[in-house]
Task: structure prediction
Amino acid sequence: QQQMQAAQQQSQKMQEMKAKRDAMLKNILTPEASERLTRIRLVNADKAAKIESMILGMASQGQIKSKVTESTLKGYLGEIDKSKPKTTIKYSRRRFADEDDDSEDYDDM
Result:
């Protein structure tokens, strides 16, 4: 029973922290930027969390003087994308010594 109460208290604290975080973001972001961040959260929750942390950190340090617009949010997205190493995929086909298709005659089969 104590474990259940502790879990409920922890869940309640998490909800309160999320509510405070959301309220702070609502004060910092314009409605358009908030909407874009919500769409980003639907597609990529990790990226949205990074952006939120970045914005809240900058706000707590006093680096953000006015509300964050959608274009500013796009700039932050670019900064996060630049910091991530770009993944490349390279395809290499196997090559055989004899690749002539016309040298084999399958017509008589």
